[in-house]
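Quick illustration, no need to memorize.
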Amino acid sequence: MPIWSLALVLLILPYALSLAKWHRRSRGLPLPPGPKSWPFVGNLPHMRKPEPWKSHHELCQTYGEITYLPLMGQSIAILGSARVLSELLDKRSALTSDKLQSVLIPLAGQTSNFSLQPYGPWWRRHRRAFWQFFFPAASERYRSIQRSSTQVFLRKLLDEPDNLVEHIRYSFTSAIVKILYGLDVVEKNDKYITMMEKNLEAGEAFMPGTYYVEFLPFLRYVPAWVPGAGFQNDFAAWRHAAEWVKNVMVGKTKEGMVHGRTSESVVAQLLGRIHEEDEDALRAGEELEIVKGVAFTAYEGGADTTYSTIQTLFVAMTLCPEVQKRAQAELDAVVGADRLPDHNDRPDLPYINAIVKEALRWAPALPFSIPHRSTEDMEYDGYFIPAGTILIPNTWACLHDPETYPDPECFMPERFLRDGQLDPDVCDPGRFAFGYGRRVCPGRYFADATLFINIAMLLHVFDITPPLDKDGKPIAIELKMSDSLVSYPKDCRCTIKPRSERARQLILANAPRTDTLS
């Protein structure tokens, strides 16, 4: 055999063997359809478009409800319908509950966030510890803090209505810090808030395609002073904030336990179950890390998504005054003018409940949820999905499916009502908004109760109308969301005024005398 023929065989043989191995593995099934990939970068351009959940929805309309987008050697599938999500993430959750262990996680200091941890025993230990404090009955323990936090929020809006976003962040951070750590946040520039907000910024890194280091891990070793490596400064700041939140906050709780100030908090109760003098020091160390991880994740998961949904509510109220008027009529009839709404009023406030659902549906805080990862090869609808595929659920597309929610772009709480009561036949947005399968959000009941009491109290005492220009004319606002893992309205300016003098007095009478919650 001529030397050139031998060389050709040696070149072709590995490729042929690889094809044969792939054919056996896939059983001859094709990959799901998708757009043509670019050389080297794959489908990166599709990942970096504004509001990518909308462009991905368009791709699924073109190629099918599951669309394949390989990206720099990584297998990625967009799940574009409720049917696909149910089949792959719910029914097959034993195979699709893993998470990609991206280089971004340690770079951003997020290794303690158990929502990003791989599916396995370590994750299950975290989730069990979390669940015992946030299952439905347990979540009711926090109602008094939720009420106090909302009353502080109302007072701050009354005093400084132009600082809406700042007040949202302060009020919700103070509540969750009290519940988790037993600590009081007393000022808007409190270091707790400063560091926790810096830590939350790390979520920006996890929108697929935002940082090239996600797909080119060697870039993590490039010094920050090298041109184009400024991302290193972002990650360094996020790591510092994450370590501070994880360690300093728990340390503050330990100090407070000595004097009984923080003993009712989640962290204090978990710490009380650790016997550090136990012979099994390794186990005690692991349990301490779980305590830190539970609090770390509870704050990140609860605060950011609640911030987003409440901001969305203000946008909706400026655009839909008729919704606001109907909600206020219901509150006036059920609650009256002499008190604020309470959690116990919830069964008698179906329209407020419908607004909560519509706020979750209209502009989901997590339009792509948190992507899952398959752990085994799978077949779906005649297509082959390789093990290790990143499964990105297009939550936004499911919540804007006109077959399920007619006129999906309209903020219309009435869609959830029939004969004046909640209609059980309408798909609950929480099915999508709080995640899927075995990775569904364990804090969803707490989040739902927080949204209800805030929406009910806000609409009971305030009128929310469009912002005004310098001539006193209304400014047109439209809903545009940020391109980040947790998505926010880019513009939630509005005019906030008490509905009446009686409403103003009600706010003043119920506001806690200090910013200390109880």
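The chain has a mean pLDDT of 89.
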